[in-house]
Amino acid sequence: MIRWSPSTELANLHGAMDRLFEDFFGSAPAEQNGGRARGLSTYVLPIDVLDLDSGYEIHAQVPGFRPEEVDVTFSEGLLRIVAQHSSQSENEVGGYLRREVAYGNFQRTIQLPGDVKDEDISARFENGILTVSVPKRPRPQPKKIAVSSNGQTQRLAEESS
User: Fold this and answer.
1) Percent of the chain scoring above 70 in pLDDT
2) What is the residue-wise DSSP string for 75-104?
3) How many other CB atoms are there within 10 angstroms of residue 128's CB atom?
4) Domain ranges of the chain
5) Which of 63, 68, 154, 160 has its CA 20 to 30 A from that of 48?
6) Is the pLDDT of residue 159 over 70?
7) Given a cut of 70, is residue 88 above it in pLDDT?
8) Which pTM value belongs to this model?
């Protein structure tokens, strides 16, 4: 008998969603052509997305990368963040007893709502954290429409008092 675990269920759901997106959008660039690019794995980039009044703010931690190694693009409602090391030193000093820090490339594609001002999207990189600011278009305000009857415009309740 296997004990039920919510974290296992979430991991299974995450894997299923990754496969769904790979089937729809294609596999990650490092996984194409039957192998890994330069031996580095491509990982899903974890992000935080904030919904602010003026827009959306996306935070991605990319420690160990330089700003020129991070690429942010927006096309057809999809914001794509890719962090790739341009070169990797093969020289290792000393022998590792254990390596737990993931070293490789990161990528994430996010579907944004239709209310974004794509021409004003900006990104900044500071202390290993990428912050992408995505401003929203202002929502249309309701317009009061006068109601007419028999060719005359009815006055609002304040005029009848």
Assistant:
1) 71
2) ETTEEEEEE--S-------S--S---S--E
3) 12
4) 6-88+101-138
5) 68
6) no
7) no
8) 0.58
Q: Are 72 and 124 in contact (CB under 8 A)?
A: no
Compute how many other C-beta atoms are within 10 angstroms of the C-beta atom of residue 57: 15
Q: What is the pLDDT of residue 14?
A: 75
User: In terms of C-beta distances under 8 Å and separation of at least 24 residues, what long-range contacts does 61-64 make, across chains too?
Assistant: 61/128, 61/129, 61/130, 62/106, 62/125, 62/128, 62/129, 62/130, 63/128, 64/103, 64/128
Q: Check whether 129 has a pLDDT greater than 80.
A: yes
Q: What does the DSSP assignment read for the chain? A: -PPP-HHHHHHHHHHHHHHHHHHHH---GGGSTTS-GGG-EEEEPPEEEEE-SSEEEEEEE-TT--GGGEEEEEETTEEEEEE--S-------S--S---S--EEEEEEEEPPTTB-GGG-EEEEETTEEEEEEEBPPPPPP-----EETTEEPPPHHHH-
110 contacts: CB under 8 Å, gap ≥ 6 = 47, 49, 58, 78, 79, 80, 81
Overall fold of domain 6-88+101-138: Immunoglobulin-like (2.60.40)
